[in-house]
Amino acid sequence: MRNGQLEFTDAPMFSRVMADESICRRVLEAILGIDIERIEYSHIEHVIEPRLASRGIRADVYVKSSNAVYDIEMQTVGDFDMGKRLRYYQGAMDVGMLQKGDPYDALPRSIIIFICTYDPYQRGLPVYELDVLCRDALSIEVGHDFKWIILNAKAFARLQKGPLHDLLEYVAEGTVERPCSLTADIKSAVASANADERWRRENMDVYTWQEDLASKDKWLRGMQERLAGEEKRLAVKEESLAAQEEGLISKEESLAAQEENLSVKEERLAAENERLMVQQGALAEQEESLSARADSLAAQEESLSSMEESLASMEESLASKEERLAVQKEELAAREEALAAREAALAAKARELGLDDLG
Fold first, then answer.
1. Which of 28, 50, 52, 178 is least crowded, fewest Cβ atoms below 10 Å from its Cβ?
2. Greatest pairwise CA separation for the chain in angstroms
């Protein structure tokens, strides 16, 4: 809504304009890129309730052609459950199409289209065509015969100039320079509806009420999401605390084991200390014994030194005696030589005296 006027993207206006069979058919042709001969019937704000007491859906525009059914939705508020919403819409549409005993191939082709004023997947594409596929073999045709199309009006400039480009530009901007016939007819239908004062006022009241409800619903959903996020955060904290508790228990057990280990080590150290003390006592006794032996050896060394001195003195005395004996030997030798000479002289004299036979 702008300046008191309802726009094409506002629910009451979208429903009124799309009630025009020609505009609705050409919108489908622009989106799907095919020709549609005619729309057999259309329902505006069509309610589908799969079963009693189950949640129903309110389709903005629900139409049927000769070979398919179409649900066209105008989405102006960010929907964070788009995937599950599409799934539920598809199931709700399918469940009422078969009667008991009908074969599954009697299901008609089904196409759900969301025209969004925002980018639901934040990829910048103007058209998101979603499908079911086999990840392991992309060439497999599933054969479900439905199609989900999400239009991002904000990215209209990425499309070539044409009916779909102009339609998305009109949805995003509210106006189109040099519009195609479809967009021109939509603009004219919007102006005509706003000119119907009674209808405009009634639907503005309803729209304002719906907007308030949507705003409250969005706020509630935001609160629910925040609460869910808070619950997840608390659950994560609880898991973290549980893990920390387990870690603390593990640490306590580890500390207890370490304490036991330290106690054993202390006992071993005490025993080792006692053993070392015994060894120290033995070493002290050995030191005392060695000291006594050292004193004894010192006394022995002094005694040996004294003996060495005495021996040295004796050696000197012996040397002196040997020298005297040598002198005496020489003297004796001289005496012997002298005696020998005298004996020889006496013998000579005896021979001279004829005393040879005296002997």
1. 52
2. 211
